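I am still getting used to backbone structure tokens and would like to learn alongside you. Label the sequence line and the structure token line clearly, so we can match residues to local backbone shapes. Would you write everything just below, so we can both look at the same thing?
***
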Amino acid sequence: MLGIGGSLREGSQSERALHIALAGAAEAGARTRAITGAELQLPFYDSALEERSPEAERLIEGIREADGLIIVSPGYHGALSGLIKNALDYVEDLRPDRRPYLDGRGVGLVAVAYGWQAAVTTLDQLRTITHALRGWPTPLGGSVNSAEVKFDEAGGASDPKVVNTLRLIGRHVVEFARTREASD
């Protein structure tokens, strides 16, 4: 299970939300890995270039190997962050693969923003992008208003319902991967 998210600020609210969702996936038996913050500082995606930075290669390979993903974006001005959008643009490099783009993968999605409007619109954009990349968004997505909910360094949050929702998203991605594997 690969988690992608956060912001350039280490320990950001969105990065902490990602780790809670990944903990839910781990509880369901998945091996988890996160690519966050500085690891997502990639050159702007350019499909005309064949050479990739080492960070971009790690991201592409991580997605290629993953049976499921959890993507968490901060909401900036009512939209997902440029950092996360650029990382998702690199999924285009999986186009020629046997399993192109996010095909056949469950994708848990979470948006964290200072206000409900930005959290909800960011989650909607993440769902749209996931569909365009042939991924399967989990039925439950997470919209977190960081004006009302604060995440702590210990892996919790001020609202236990938010923690439960994030862990459930992680478990749903694992359940989808297991169901998909059993049907193949």
Observations:
- The chain has a mean pLDDT of 96.
- The radius of gyration is 15 Å.
- The helical segments are 13-27, 54-65, 82-89, 116-132, 160-183.
